[in-house]
Amino acid sequence: MAKRSEKSSKGDPRLKREIVGPREGGQRLDIYMIGVFDGLSRKQAKKLIDQSKVSVNGKIEIMASHEVVPGERIEVRFDPPEEKRKPPEIKLLYRDEHFLAVDKPSFIPSGVTMDPGRLTAELLAKKAYGAKLKLLHRLDKDTTGVLLFGINDEATRSILEEFRKRMVDKTYFAIVSGKPPEKFDDVRHIKEVPGGRVASVASGGMRTETSFTTLAVANGCALVECRPKTGRMHQIRLQLSARGFPILGDALYGGAPRVRIGEEELEIPRQMLHAYKVAFNHPASGAEMEICSPIPEDFERIAKALFGVVSVLKKKRC
Length: 318
Fold this sequence. Notes:
Distance between the termini: 55 Å
Number of helices: 7
Largest sheet: 11 strands, mixed
Shape: globular
């Protein structure tokens, strides 16, 4: 089959889109992809599918064996070439002799992964502020916001103990699909399952609890404040998705890659989840500490497009 030029979605050059032609029906999805996207190998196609970066008619498709049908819209979100990526900034939010807080950027893990050469917020912070820093908790790769590091052993132990005893008050903002109740709590047990995900279980697993408050609703979406009382992997993402309100851009849990506003489609650049604030007792003085992260530009842009002037977010500025 002759290669066709890749089409990019308006506003996001990483997103490529094709419509399955009459003669292409019945092909496996991975085979179809290497036929229409220049320079793509079958291994690369399979990896993109496994990473939940391929959608069929707006729904994430995780099966490379899916048989494409004429007229289906196939969209693939490609990563930018490595050589074109600029190292993200790691902004300092607070620092004293005991601990510091940074503003974690999106698209990088919090701490070390199985790939020792991968860039992380921990490596950036250590390079900028000291090699002996101890990461105290984690945020998901695409989640932005407050990330804490211990500077000395005593402070590290103290803050970790506050996390263990659930004394750290955490506040997140999320933009989701649907119309959630004004206030609701979610308590469930979860466990890790294949594919880097978590799932609800009827028995066993780890207990999770979060309180949610809906701050704004418009265009089939909502701005939600999330107050997790436990700190499990993907907790907020799973709870909202299980309730029928997946976070926009969260491909792993069914979040929409774009939303329609009138005649226009709004591309969602990442999962719309921001760790806005942490509050805890200072490890040395015992004083109440409250550290917050400014609402990031991409989050505020999506919120403004969906909900207009978001007075709630403006009041929440640090």
